[in-house]
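User: Could you walk me through two proteins back to back? I'd like the raw sequence and the structure tokens for each, with a short line separating them so I can tell where one ends and the next begins.

Assistant: Of course. Protein one, sequence then structure:
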Amino acid sequence: MNDYLNGKINKKTSISEINLNSNIGQLARIGYAEFRGGNSTEQLVGMDIVMNRVESDKFPNTIEGVITQPWQFSSLNKNDNNRIFYTNPSETLKIQSGKHKGELDKLNHNAWVRSLSNAIKVYKGSERGISKSALVYYSPRSMSRDKKGNPTIPKWDFNKLKEIYVAGVRASYIKMYTYKESKKKCQRK
């Protein structure tokens, strides 16, 4: 457990050594569930967005509150196939069927270790700010498709949002936004 708290996560770290309900554990779980297929920068950005929301007056003020807010993270939606990656990451670290059932799934294991490491970095502050204050995002690759086969987009008022671009983040993987400042805030008295 001390290695976990000190940010020393490696292939020998057991999932049972990690408190999955701690702030770091919850951040790692959402990073794994939502961004395990992305690169390290994309995963860091996603976790940083969670922390930006915690600090914003537009969202709950705890990691758990942000993550469990209804319809914010698809991996927490009741019928989403990715729910197991958040609720019980340990069940995703072994191959589930076929000739190699029960063996370590190296891709998921490596993604979980990366998620733990990145959660510690973001939570402790060494990777805070990587998302450039983004508060909302969506993944074009995981959106449903319209009748022509084009991905749908969220029903947000995009006039109130400013798109954020981060080097190393694919726009096809994550599209990030922050709220535009209202004119009332910008006016001097």
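----
Protein two, same layout:
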Amino acid sequence: MKILVCISHVPDTTSKINFTDGDTKFDTNGVQYVINPNDEFGLTRAMWFKEKQGANVTVVNVGGPETEPTLRKALAIGADNAIRVNTEAKDGFQVAKQLANVVKEGGYDLVIAGRESIDYNGGMVPGMLAGLIGANFVTNCISLEVDDNNAKAMREIDGGKETVTTSLPLVIGGQKGLVEESDLRIPNMRGIMMARKKPLEVKERVDASTETASVKFEKPAPKGSVKLIDADNVGELVNLLHNEAKVI
């Protein structure tokens, strides 16, 4: 089984976020980048398929040379090889088109992507990718088993969980639950050294239109001041909630 794991290169959640050019561009200065958490769950599940079923695992990213350290980390975790599509990731459709070309050229049976990335939270790429390559698709995936050409997946739905069966080729949008956080792997020194020798192929982009553009960024408004009320002064609390906050 050939598995392709889509890796997004995203800012660490602890990074301080700023914008430049009149809040129209993201300021990358001083920002630490990591593997998108939803993608990391998917990569860990792919490693299980590699170890238990002999699958071959390739990781792919759409981005410039600055994303290669993130791909090398994925290789250090255990992926067999990596592909970087040499173009800036501008919107979901454009990224999906680049990934679709990689899938068609590589003949992958299973594509594991994160449900969404933590930077733009678009949640569009896995579904569009499945549509472009004509594959089955399961999103919000929290469990996946593959037996020959058949797959059994569980996904989160409103108010519960749903188990589905399907066949390969398959694209999933994975999330926490596909593996648990305790199952995530930290590259060790041996893995890091081996990653330096593993192939990282750079592919040039294919023509793809960009359907959306970011017009402006805005930080959340700062939290306002608060008033502390003594626990025994319920009357004052009710008065403030009714007359000042106007929530009751």
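The helical segments are 37-53, 68-77, 92-106, 125-133, 189-195, 234-244.

Let me know if you want the two compared in more detail.
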